């Protein structure tokens, strides 16, 4: 898949071993890759970031502030469900108009690297889609 190829190319450019996930609009995993030397814990975190981005139709980095005490979604990190929600950067929804058609998630590097890799993946998946910049 071209989004995984783009993501792995960015992983190599940044030299940040990472796991990369793509989910559909329902949060179901449709593609996954893990670069050499990516930690085993990055697998679930990447998938969970993509799942969270699809569920909230929002970049995971944008959820952090509202998930703090007093925020609208405080406690969401502890909410039950199929997968835990992740509220730090690296998950990006893919939007076509007001519809979420899927999401990508990246885990492995510092958040700034995860954001750059997830953006590269989203751009490769739907170059003309509305993709959050955070």
Describe this structure in words.
The chain is about 30% helix and about 20% strand. By secondary structure, the chain is an alpha+beta fold. It has one domain: Haem-degrading domain (Beta-Lactamase, 2-Layer Sandwich), CATH 3.30.450. It has a four-stranded antiparallel beta sheet with strand order 2-1-4-3. β3 and β4 (about 100-105) form a beta hairpin. The chain starts with a helix and ends in a 9-residue tail after the last helix.
* Average pLDDT taken over every residue: 91
CATH class: Alpha Beta
Instruction: Indicate the overall shape.
Output: globular
CATH 2nd-level architecture = 2-Layer Sandwich
The N- and C-terminal alpha carbons lie at a distance of 23 Å
**Care to count the β-strands?**
4
Multimeric organization:
single chain
- Which structural class fits the helix and strand makeup? alpha+beta
How many DSSP helices? 3
* Largest β-sheet summary: 4 strands, antiparallel
Percentage of residues assigned to helices = 25-40%
| Strand arrangement across the biggest beta sheet | 2-1-4-3
Integer tally of domains:
1
Any key phrases for this structure?
134 residues, four-stranded antiparallel β-sheet, alpha+beta, Beta-Lactamase, single chain, 4 strands
Please provide a brief summary of the model.
With 134 residues, the chain is an alpha+beta fold. Helix content is 32%, strand content 20%.
Topology:
Elements (H helix, E strand, L loop, with lengths): L1 H13 L4 E6 L4 E6 L7 H15 L34 E6 L2 E9 L3 H15 L9
Antiparallel strand pairs: 1-2, 1-4, 3-4
């Amino acid at each position: 898949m071209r989004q995984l190829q783009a993501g792995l190319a960015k992983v190599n450019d940044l030299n940040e071993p990472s796991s990369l996930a793509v989910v559909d609009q329902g949060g179901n995993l449709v593609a996954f890759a893990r670069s050499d030397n990516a930690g085993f814990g990055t697998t679930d975190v990447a998938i969970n970031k993509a799942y969270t981005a699809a569920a909230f139709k929002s970049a995971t980095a944008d959820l952090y502030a509202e998930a703090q005490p007093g925020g609208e979604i405080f406690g969401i990190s502890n909410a039950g469900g199929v997968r835990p929600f992740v509220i730090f950067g690296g998950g990006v929804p893919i939007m076509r108009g007001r519809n979420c058609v899927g999401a990508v998630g990246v885990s492995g590097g510092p958040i700034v690297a995860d954001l750059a890799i997830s953006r590269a993946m989203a751009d490769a998946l739907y170059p003309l889609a509305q993709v959050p910049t955070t």
